[in-house]
């Protein structure tokens, strides 16, 4: 099944800069059967209860929202800094092609909440690690991290493992 899902992902060469092979999950999201199979497959990788699914902007919102419903959990939005009203906490992180800053509401996660981080793609792990730092600062416990796609050559899985974060992806693209 995961090979069928992988076939629904479009590759856009040289985006957002030359040398990057952008793996575009939006083509998978356009396929209703693909979306349903993706959410089911991700849910099957989760052990134990989850209080919140922390979805990372922007494609992570679509996946995280559906997964939160499937897991009977709340949805915590992790956004680019400056996009949330109210009091927030923020963390800087590095991308494979730059840097950015993520934020969440300071009261979005209660101490002791079990939080599953979700995004479309795992590259260097910088985004997921920044999300984990935010959740931990608020007192949450990381229940794991789940991704549709892993780019293992960029080392994100290793970085998450070194940080003690259980992670899983549905499929990989090598050499990117």
TrEMBL record:
Keywords: Cytoplasm, Glycosyltransferase, Purine salvage, Transferase. Residues 36-149 form the Phosphoribosyltransferase domain. It catalyses: AMP + diphosphate = 5-phospho-alpha-D-ribose 1-diphosphate + adenine. GO terms for molecular function: adenine phosphoribosyltransferase activity. It is found in: Cytoplasm. It holds the Pfam family Pribosyltran. Pathway: Purine metabolism; AMP biosynthesis via salvage pathway; AMP from adenine: step 1/1. It comes from the Bacteria. Gene3D superfamilies: 3.40.50.2020. Its EC number is 2.4.2.7. Transmembrane segments: none annotated. Homodimer. Belongs to the purine/pyrimidine phosphoribosyltransferase family. Catalyzes a salvage reaction resulting in the formation of AMP, that is energically less costly than de novo synthesis. PANTHER family: ADENINE PHOSPHORIBOSYLTRANSFERASE, PHOSPHORIBOSYLTRANSFERASE DOMAIN-CONTAINING PROTEIN. This is Adenine phosphoribosyltransferase. It comes from Sphingomonas brevis. The gene is apt.
């Amino acid at each position: 099944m995961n090979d069928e899902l992988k076939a629904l992902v479009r590759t856009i060469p040289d985006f957002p800069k030359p040398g990057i092979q952008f793996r575009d999950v939006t083509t998978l999201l356009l396929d209703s059967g693909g979306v349903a199979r993706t959410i089911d497959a991700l849910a099957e990788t989760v052990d134990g209860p989850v209080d919140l699914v922390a979805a990372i902007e922007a494609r992570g919102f679509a996946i995280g929202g559906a997964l939160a419903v499937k897991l009977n959990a709340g949805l915590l939005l992790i956004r680019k800094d400056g996009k949330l009203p109210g009091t927030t906490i923020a963390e800087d992180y590095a991308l494979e092609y730059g840097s950015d800053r993520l934020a969440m509401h300071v009261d979005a996660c209660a101490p002791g909440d079990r939080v599953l981080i979700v995004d479309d793609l795992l590259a260097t792990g910088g985004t997921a690690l920044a999300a984990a730092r935010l959740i931990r600062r608020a007192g949450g416990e990381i229940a794991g991290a789940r991704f549709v796609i892993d780019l293992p050559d960029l080392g994100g899985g290793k970085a998450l493992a070194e940080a003690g974060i259980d992670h899983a992806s549905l499929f990989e693209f090598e050499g990117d």
